[in-house]
Design a protein that fits this description.
Layout: E1 11-18, H1 21-37, E2 45-52, E3 58-65, H2 68-76, H3 78-90, E4 93-99
Antiparallel strand pairs: 1-3, 1-4, 2-3
Helix pairs in contact: 1-3
Domain ABM: 11-101
Keywords: Monooxygenase, Oxidoreductase
GO molecular function, one term: monooxygenase activity
């Protein structure tokens, strides 16, 4: 379960993907497979969520890691590099960005 709190030491990564409605389902399947079979099993992984907009032109991915280095190590693996090459063919662009929580509201 993701933790959204200002005083946490976790690494939050938000990735946005831009695609056409025609490739949205394929991209969602590729991302789901990546999380089910690889990413969620990597050291430091805590939780993630995938969100699709109504027009099916954007997917937002929210993930949390114990440390920044855990996320970076996952990205550098051969398997994730191969998966990202496939993901790149299914979308116009994607960009993972690391964030710190500045404020949280209940």
């Amino acid at each position: 379960m993701p933790t959204i709190a200002k005083d946490t030491q976790l690494q939050t990564v938000i990735t946005t993907f831009e695609m056409t409605p025609g490739t949205c389902q394929d991209l969602m399947e590729a991302l789901t497979d990546a999380y089910d079979n690889f990413i969620s099993k990597q050291p430091g992984f805590i939780a993630a969520g995938l969100h699709v907009n109504d027009a099916q032109t954007r997917i937002a991915n929210y993930s949390q890691w114990e440390r920044r280095e855990d996320f970076q190590a996952m990205l550098r693996t051969q398997e994730m590099r191969e998966r990202n090459r496939k993901i790149n063919t299914l979308c116009r662009s994607f960009e993972p960005v690391m964030y710190e929580v500045s404020a949280a509201f209940d």
